[in-house]
Amino acid sequence: MIRILAITLFLSAIAHAQAPQKTSASFYCFRYADELEDVFVRTGAEVYQKVELSTANMLGPLEVVISEGSVFVHREDTDAEGKTIYPPVGKISLRGIDKPLIVLFPGKEADPLPYRGVTIDRDNAKFPMGSYQFMNLSPYAMRGLVGKVRIDAKPGEVTNLKPQGEPGQMQQVTFEYLDGEIWKTMTKTRWAVRDDRRNLMCAYLDPKSQRVKLRSIPERMVSVASRPGNP
Questions:
Q1: Which end of the chain has the smaller Cβ count within 10 Å, N or C?
Q2: Contacts of 120 (CB under 8 A, 6+ apart)
Q3: How far is 4 from 103, CA to CA, in rounded Å?
Q4: Which pLDDT score is estimated for 225?
Q5: Cα(39)–Cα(113) distance, integer angstroms
Q6: 3-state secondary structure string, the chain?
Q7: Keywords for this entry (predicted)?
Q8: Radius of gyration of the chain (CA)
């Protein structure tokens, strides 16, 4: 009896060790990479799920496999023998985050993969209602003032911003970027304090106009309504 129990525990340990590590991830695409509006993510040992990316909504959450401390996104292709394969098109580090929102955007010409990404922590303690996650996707240092709350963000940084005040109160908002040695105004406006929603805010360099712009994306989660790819 003891021997049977030991064998059972041993086999269970092997099965557990072989099971891929997973996390519950959500996805948002800030801008599509060329011909990659749809990607695939690995949800099992040999199973890939199609994700139809959106620049309007966040998608998920979806249980995906963790590899090398990262989540990979893939494209679907066939090899010389006609077998379906899934080459990677992006590798996004989780940075130890348990509830990641993965924000995808096109990589630079020198990057080895078409997509780059940053990871936002969706934990309520890190991203509370009424707050913003400010992502500086531009090549410039940024600074901002929302009421009396100041933020600073280097290129590639993600910073939490929580306006202070009573819900509905209007506050003066200014964001600037450092061009050489001169701080230039990116936007100057007024916001109402809200405690019933949370948003992403992306500062970026528009590739067409070459102007620095700001985009706000409310957290509107949509389920991934597509079927798994063939293993």
A1: N
A2: 97, 100, 101, 102, 103, 127, 133, 135, 158, 200
A3: 48
A4: 63
A5: 13
A6: CHHHHHHHHHHHHHHHHHCCCEEEEEEEECCCCCCCCEEEEECCCCCEEEEECCCCCEEEEEEEECECCEEEEECCEECCCCCEECCEEEEEECCCCCCEEEEEEECCCCCCCCEEEEEEECCCCCCCCCCEEEEECCCCCEEEEECCEEEEECCCCEEEECCCCCCCCEEEEEEEEEECCEEEEEEEEEEECCCCCCEEEEEEECCCCCCEEEEEEECCEECCCCCEECC
A7: Signal
A8: 21
Structure tokens at 120: 């936002």
